[in-house]
């Protein structure tokens, strides 16, 4: 890992320094991260409630819950098995976001969750789903710039969410 990212510490400290020197950018980074972790579950619950009122407690509500939940559990088990260290554990960097627990960096569960919720919404509404998928990309960027994930962690989390989310369209 260090060979591939031999200048990671230098790169991160350079980027983090630019963000830290602009209080607006630092607040924006932290606010967006918090916003996404609060809003995405609300969006998901809204999707479930809306689907329930449109179709009743039927197959579609169960599909949205089952596919999302199984994906989350499988991804959580996978990341526990991989147990990849976080950037701040391997490098002498100070993350801009509050530090998460150690290890289990890969794949990003925040980004996976955002992308799987986005895919469920995409199934229900193309425009809402596309907007949420774009916001999920920004969440990945924020998690990298915040120093709590490597780029590959968020990319794998995003791709896993997209791939698992395709299952919504098969039912």
Automatic annotation (TrEMBL):
InterPro entries: PAP2/HPO, PAP2/HPO_sf
Xref: Pfam families: PAP2
All copies of domain Phosphatidic acid phosphatase type 2/haloperoxidase, residue ranges: 61-169
Ranges that cross the membrane: 35-54, 60-78, 116-142, 154-170
Record's protein name: Phosphatase PAP2 family protein
DNA repair as UniProt keyword: no
Alphabetical list of PANTHER family matching this protein: AT30094P, SPHINGOSINE-1-PHOSPHATE PHOSPHOHYDROLASE
Keywords associated with the record: Membrane, Transmembrane, Transmembrane helix
């Amino acid at each position: 890992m260090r060979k591939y990212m031999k200048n990671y510490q230098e790169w991160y400290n350079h980027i983090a320094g630019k963000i830290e020197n602009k209080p607006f950018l630092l607040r924006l980074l932290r606010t967006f991260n918090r916003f996404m972790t609060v809003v995405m579950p609300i969006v998901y619950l809204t999707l479930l409630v809306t689907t329930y009122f449109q179709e009743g407690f039927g197959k579609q509500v169960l599909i949205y819950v089952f596919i999302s939940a199984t994906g989350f559990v499988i991804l959580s088990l996978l990341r526990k098995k991989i147990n990849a260290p976080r950037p701040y554990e391997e490098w002498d960097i100070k993350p801009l976001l509050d530090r998460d627990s150690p290890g289990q960096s890969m794949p990003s569960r925040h980004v996976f969750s955002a992308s799987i919720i986005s895919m469920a919404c995409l199934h229900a509404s193309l425009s809402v789903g596309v907007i949420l998928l774009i916001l999920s990309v920004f969440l990945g960027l924020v998690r990298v710039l915040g120093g709590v994930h490597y780029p590959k962690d968020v990319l794998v989390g995003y791709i896993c969410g997209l791939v698992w989310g395709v299952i919504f369209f098969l039912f």
